[in-house]
Fatty acyl-CoA reductase
Amino acid sequence: MPEGDVKSFYNGKNVFITGGTGFVGIALVEKLLRTTEVNKIYLLVRPKRDKEIYARLEEYIKNPIFSVLKEEKGSEVFTKLSAVQGDVGEDNLGLSNNDKQTLIDNVNIVFHCAATLDFEADLKCTVKINLLGTRRVVELCKKIKNLNGLLHVSSAYVNSHLLRVDEKLYPVPESADKVIELVESTPDKELEEKTKQILGKYINTYTFTKALAEIEVTNSVDLFPSCIVRPSMIVAAWKEPIPGWTNSKNGPQGFIMGAAKGVVRRLPVDPKLVCDYIPVDVVVNGIIVGAWKAAISRPSETLIFHLTSSTYKPFKWNIVAGSVDRLLHKYPLKSAVWYPTLKLLPSLFVFKLSALFFHWIPAYFLDAVTALSGGRPILRKLHSNINKSLDRLQPFIFTEWFFSNKKTMELHNSLSEQDKENFTLDLGPLVWRDYFENMAKGVRQFLHKEEPSSLEYAKKKDTIFLILNIILQVVIMSSIWFLFSTISGKSLTDCFLVLPITLIIFGIL
C-alpha cells in the first residue's frame, strides 16, 4: 500500500459505526460502500417499539442517498452491512455478549458518530449519551484485538465560549467523573436548578458534554490511535452522492423547507454575519481521511481537525439573500399552502413583531380553515415551537465564530492527487449561490418528498398563489385605509398618506 493512499487503506477493513442511522452516519456508510472496498460495516442500531433492527436495516437501504451506489455496484453491496443491536446510552453499549465478541474479534476502525443534538435536552440525558456513550465506545476500543484507530465526531461548538478557536484540545473545568457522579446522585429537580452553575461558561448541555467527551477520547491515545473531527453546522451535500441531498431539517435546510411551504416568511438572521456551514459530504471525507491519518501516523496526541468554513470559505446570508425568493419560485412545492417568500431580520425584537403579522395571524386563519375542512391544524403549534426555540438558539443566531482549519488544509494538501479527488477537504471551489440552488432542489425532493416530475404542476399552483397574494395585499391595504378613514372621520382622500406609511411599516417588518 503506497503511503497516503486513503482508498486502499480501507480495502478489506471491518468498521464499526455508532450513529450510522443519522444524517452524517448514513452519508458515511454510503461513501464507504461506494468508494472503498471495506469488508464489513457493523452498524449499532436501536430497536424501535414496532421494528426490529433487521427491519430497520431493510428500510435504511431504501434511502434515496443509496441510488447512485445501487446503480454503480448493485444491491448486493448491502451484504456488507451488518446491524448490531445496541444503544450508546446503555451500559456496554447495550450489546449482547455474542455481538460484543464479534466486534472485539473483527473490527479494525471505529467511527463514533452517535450523539444527542437536542439543545433542550437536560444534563442527565446529554451525560448519558454524549459523555458516557463516548466512554463506553472507548472501553470497547480498548478490548478490540486489531484496532487501527478510533475516529470521534465532535463539534466545532464544543468551545463556543471562545469566538476564535484553534484545532487543539481545550481544558474543561469540571472532570468527567465528577459530572457523572453529580448527575447520578442528584435528584432531577435539584440537578435542573444546578445545571447553569455546572455548565459555567458553556452555552448548553450539548457543548459541555461534547467537550468532556473529547477528553475521554484523548485520554486513551497511549492505547490506540485516535482522531477528533469538529464539524460546524452540517448542511446538504455539495457534490456527492447527489448534490443537495439531505435528510436534516436543521439550519438553512429547515429555513428553506418552511419557506417553500409558505408558512415561514421571516427569519431572525443578520445577513452580514458569518455563518459556519459545512456540506455533509465534506464532513464524511474528513471522517474517512482523519481515521486513516491517525491509523498510519499513530500520533502521540489525538489528532484534531476542524471541518468548517468560517476562516476559509466564509458564508454570509447576504451572499444569497437576493436569490432565495427566486429559488422558492423556481422550485415551488405542489404542497405549498401559500405564496412563498422569505425575509431576513437582523433583530429578534423586529422578528417577533413581524411574526405577529406574517406568522401568527395567518396561522390562526389557516388552522381554522383546516379544522373546518376536517384536517389537523398544525401551524400554531409550529410557530409556538419556533418561539420556544429562539431563546436557546439566540447565541448561535447572532454570534460569529471563526474556526481555524489550517491543520485540515495541511491534511488535504498531503493527500495524493487521486485521494484529493476522492476525499476532498477543500472548499475553495464551492460557490455558495450554486450550492444553495442545489440545496433548494434537495429540500424539495428529499425533505418534502416531491419528485422533479411534479414541478410543472407546482409552478402553476405558485402562479395562482401569487395572484391570490396580490389580491389579499390589496384587500388588507384597502381595509386599513378605510378603517383609518372611519375612525378619524376624514375622507379617504385626506387619509391617503396612511397607504405609504403602512407600506413602509410592513416593509420594515
